[in-house]
């Protein structure tokens, strides 16, 4: 079980495609994870005529159990190498 006290941040991305690929890699590796999604667009910036790009609005932060951090890094390494 992943709690606030035993979790480590694995990766953070604004890309929904990258979020999906990392999630699938962790599932395939059998690693439990949690995703925290943070909306980075403030309500103050929402005004008539302004339409923020939704792909840049949400930060997806992956957390894994601290004991699984090395295995999780190895599981997502090919994805990160591919995206460069």
Number of strands: 3
Specify the helix fraction band: 25-40%
Overall pLDDT level: 88
H/E element string? EHEEH
Strand content: 25-35%
Q: Which term fits the overall shape?
A: globular
C-alpha end-to-end distance: 32 Å
Rg over alpha carbons = 15 Å
What low-confidence regions span 5 or more consecutive residues with pLDDT below 50? Answer: none
Would you tell me the structural class of the helices and strands? alpha+beta
* Spatial strand arrangement across the major sheet: 1-3-2
- What's the main sheet like? 3 strands, antiparallel
Multimeric organization: single chain
Number of helices: 2
General description of the model:
The protein is of the alpha+beta class. The chain has helices spanning 16-29, 69-83, and strands spanning 7-13, 33-39, 58-65. Helix 1 (16-29) packs across helix 2 (69-83). The mean pLDDT is 88.
Furnish the topology, listing elements before pairings:
Blueprint lengths: L6 E7 L2 H14 L3 E7 L18 E8 L3 H15 L1
Antiparallel strand pairs: 1-3, 2-3
Helix pairs in contact: 1-2
